[in-house]
Amino acid sequence: MTMKNQSNVSFYGMGIAPKILEVLDSMKFTVPTPIQHKAIPIGIEGKDIIGIAQTGTGKTLAFAIPIIQRLAQAKGRCLVLVPTRELAIQVDETFQKLTPLFGIKTAVLIGGASMHLQLQALRRNPRVIIATPGRLTDHMNQRTILLADVNVLVLDEADRMLDMGFLPQIEQILKYIPKTRQTMLFSATIPAEIVKIAAIHMKLPVHTEVAPSGTMAERIVQELFIVKHDSKRQLLEKVLRQYHGSVLLFSRTKRGAAKIVRLIRGMGHNAAEIHSDRSLGQRREALEGFKRGKYRVLVATDIAARGIDVTGIELVINYDLPEDAENYVHRIGRTARAGHEGRAISFATPDQGDDVRNIEKLIKTALPVSEHPEFPREVFQKASASSSYSRDKYRHQGQHKPGGFHKKSYHSSSGSHFQKPSNRYSA
């Protein structure tokens, strides 16, 4: 959990019940994150919330505390909808820190897991149900679950659920939940579909935003290497030799992830993959192995990555740039957690200048370009008129615009030698 040193801010005075405050104290949670500070009092008041916050900002506890407090005081159940299996498991782990004191049981309904065990969990009358939309609708169609007593609904990482095509299932689920409920929607961005859901299904929601779209986690050092596709493997080998901590590497495709894992193992590093073609058991083993240090490198696709909430990732590598610029922010936000510093390195091929410019427009800054002395200097092809955006940013930042870089070399902490390129774009 990210804990910032904010003066005169604590969990006290937010309306949290003393018993829950004792648990937070025992877990050494003394200073709420910004989203917790804003959302918890609103949630405790029973109001609908639209919370805009990036992954890793402590938002799970921001809705778990009001939910547990409400369920401890009155009847009813809570339904938490999440996009991925991994995120469902992590949300449940957060609830488990609070529920035992109040005798509240939880159930996790996700695809790839035993239906029989889920039915057993449902028979124990859980008051918190954490589910992916697909598996929940399976239970609804088989009439193994009723939602008539749900009085709190959470849509967590709502933008990702929409990206994954879950809107029809969400609409179906909402038809079976009483309208007299509290709804809490959390998202990193606010696409039009979310605005529509809020307008139709929420009652005068309080909008709270702590990380605007495109806002990156603090203390991340970013680097961009322009490299030919055939040289990516060799550059990856150099980077993995330079840095010695845990690495989260992103591939654009599932097939690419499997191939990269084989490459990394061939370089002598322990690696695992996590994507939708892997079974739930395989994905859990990969994530737990990564957390324990069994695997130094975890290779992931964007969809699977939403459940990766691991403190201490030293380096994020974008082996492939994301298709959607928004995912760049989500990816690099996996490092620099809990006050630690982090680094994000991206590989871009010479024909991906537009992809890089889209990312820069989103994050409102230019990505610093580095060179490795063992690789020929590459530049982006066919600079378009939009490249003036990046040039203007360099000027505003007091740097030399592309075409006017001093060829400045520098050494990394491990002694590797790189150079700043003099120009990013071809003439």
Shape: globular
Task: Report the span from N to C terminus.
Answer: 47 Å
The CATH C-level name of the largest domain is: Alpha Beta
Number of strands: 16
User: What portion of residues is helical?
Assistant: 25-40%
The total number of structural domains is 2
Number of helices: 16
Question: Helix/strand/pairing class, anyone?
Answer: alpha/beta
Structure explained in plain terms:
The protein has 427 residues and is of the alpha/beta class. 37% of the residues lie in helices and 17% in strands. Strands 3-4-2-5-6-1-7 form a seven-stranded parallel beta sheet. Helix 5 (115-123) links the parallel strand 3 and strand 4. The longest helix has 15 residues, at 59-73. It is globular. The termini are far apart.
Provide the descriptors you would attach to this structure in a database record.
about 425 residues, 16 strands, disordered N terminus
What's the gist of this structure?
The protein is of the alpha/beta class and 427 residues long. It is built from 16 helices and 16 strands. Mean pLDDT is 83; it is low at 1-7 and 384-418.
Which secondary structure elements does this structure contain, and how are they paired or packed?
Layout: H1 18-26, H2 34-44, E1 49-52, H3 59-73, E2 77-81, H4 85-96, E3 106-109, H5 115-123, E4 128-131, H6 133-141, E5 150-155, H7 158-163, H8 167-174, E6 182-187, H9 192-201, E7 206-209, E8 220-226, H10 232-242, E9 247-250, H11 254-266, E10 271-274, H12 280-292, E11 297-300, H13 302-305, E12 315-318, H14 325-332, E13 342-348, H15 353-363, E14 369-370, H16 388-396, E15 409-411, E16 417-419
Parallel strand pairs: 1-6, 1-7, 2-4, 2-5, 3-4, 5-6, 8-13, 8-14, 9-11, 9-12, 10-11, 12-13
Antiparallel strand pairs: 15-16
